[in-house]
Amino acid sequence: MTEPLILTARDNPLLQRIRKLGQDPGAYRKLGQVWLEGDHLVGAALQRGRPLEELVFTESAWHERADWRGWVDRARRVVVVPDALMKTLSTLESPPRIGALLAVPADTALAPRAFSVVLDRLQDAGNVGSILRSAAAFGVGQVLAIKGTAALWSPKVLRAGMGAHFALQLVEGLAPEDLAGLAVPLLATSSHAGLVLGQAELPHPCAWVLGHEGRGVDEALMARCAHTVSIPQPGGEESLNVAAAAAICLFASRAPG
Amino acid sequence: MTEPLILTARDNPLLQRIRKLGQDPGAYRKLGQVWLEGDHLVGAALQRGRPLEELVFTESAWHERADWRGWVDRARRVVVVPDALMKTLSTLESPPRIGALLAVPADTALAPRAFSVVLDRLQDAGNVGSILRSAAAFGVGQVLAIKGTAALWSPKVLRAGMGAHFALQLVEGLAPEDLAGLAVPLLATSSHAGLVLGQAELPHPCAWVLGHEGRGVDEALMARCAHTVSIPQPGGEESLNVAAAAAICLFASRAPG
């Protein structure tokens, strides 16, 4: 079994890098890595075959016989830190007992015929994470983020995504015109006319365009949509949260299966 | 037209009360009022016929001719404060130009035959707000919160609810056994068996029981459910966010309309 590297100095460069990744939502873009906190996220990455770079245990976790002791062979390097030091690496109220550094997959090309979600400048990390979970659940292959969308691999979106990141291909920083490469019809929700969800048959695969929480889908993007789709709302509020609307739309157009 | 009360002292008791309501998520329970920030929330309350107690304008908003100047006749009292003072009342990055105090409706009795949502100790304000929006959109009549659920009228839930609060009857602090008073079948989602959403016909009206983000629906409550319902997830993640799952379920069992 790999011999762990024991780190006890608070200012060790590896630990400083981890702190930066935990605190700065966009740091992964420069550093090329993300910091996964907790056994749920680390386990989800491993389950999808993502190779870990550093796997970090607290001392007390390292000395415990737990299932995740079997994970050590899947990391390039294993690090053990005093429990008090792990606290300085975490932004959570209860710091985790395990964490890992993972190289961010550099997906840059979009898959032309995949069932897709397009995020048009969504701001809220909780919404983005919830949408990634729904996308993974309903068989979406790729999530395409238009420039201005919350950073998909930021710590908050990673937490809200609960591991969905590892089931999806994620492409960031796109311009609306990049979507010309998609060979599936684009759909957007709208309260005006168009197809009625639950009545019309929806194309599959397709790409759902989800817009900014306050301003909705950009006009230029809307013009690229083959269909607008309305969600019947007998309560008359016409004001679903974007992640709630996304869940309904993705469920309705899921892969047959 | 009502003559406005002009307040310029930072420590005026009314302004102190507003600050307390903005900062302490449970203060409304003691004070019997909520503080609505911004024209969207205030407008939503008025649209549903809720009478305002104090309507608070910034000086610059007061001197502007805007639609909401027509709202002054619907408030018991109109207050104008210097713009800088409004900033001290707000917890938002961009303080609003208008706000209002509203008496919290003291709904304590549940409606036996209403299309309902039961919140079983949900913790996240964003999730609760999103669920209230979906409930209002799909014609739910009442939302019943089991003791331990996030405070429904807290500032964060109010913001996330975007006005849905005023379209619903909200009952808080219930025990599981209080649901014995409901004459509609209780449904809960489960990955195990039960009815399959999109295939089985769902009863209407019904009451959807939504469980704690980490621990799910309490066992005693689950035992009261007439049906469990599974949401087919061809992606195989089995891990929808609770507000996303709620949106799908409420849409699927909405009132015929």
From TrEMBL, chains A, B:
<feature type="domain" description="tRNA/rRNA methyltransferase SpoU type">
    <location>
        <begin position="115"/>
        <end position="251"/>
    </location>
</feature>
<dbReference type="GO" id="GO:0006396">
    <property type="term" value="P:RNA processing"/>
</dbReference>
<dbReference type="InterPro" id="IPR029026">
    <property type="entry name" value="tRNA_m1G_MTases_N"/>
</dbReference>
<dbReference type="InterPro" id="IPR029028">
    <property type="entry name" value="Alpha/beta_knot_MTases"/>
</dbReference>
<dbReference type="Pfam" id="PF22435">
    <property type="entry name" value="MRM3-like_sub_bind"/>
</dbReference>
<keyword id="KW-0808">Transferase</keyword>
<dbReference type="GO" id="GO:0032259">
    <property type="term" value="P:methylation"/>
</dbReference>
<feature type="domain" description="MRM3-like substrate binding">
    <location>
        <begin position="12"/>
        <end position="98"/>
    </location>
</feature>
<keyword id="KW-0489">Methyltransferase</keyword>
<dbReference type="GO" id="GO:0008173">
    <property type="term" value="F:RNA methyltransferase activity"/>
</dbReference>
<protein>
    <submittedName>
        <fullName>RNA methyltransferase</fullName>
    </submittedName>
</protein>
<comment type="similarity">
    <text>Belongs to the class IV-like SAM-binding methyltransferase superfamily. RNA methyltransferase TrmH family.</text>
</comment>
<dbReference type="InterPro" id="IPR051259">
    <property type="entry name" value="rRNA_Methyltransferase"/>
</dbReference>
<dbReference type="InterPro" id="IPR029064">
    <property type="entry name" value="Ribosomal_eL30-like_sf"/>
</dbReference>
<dbReference type="Pfam" id="PF00588">
    <property type="entry name" value="SpoU_methylase"/>
</dbReference>
<dbReference type="InterPro" id="IPR053888">
    <property type="entry name" value="MRM3-like_sub_bind"/>
</dbReference>
<dbReference type="GO" id="GO:0003723">
    <property type="term" value="F:RNA binding"/>
</dbReference>
<dbReference type="InterPro" id="IPR001537">
    <property type="entry name" value="SpoU_MeTrfase"/>
</dbReference>
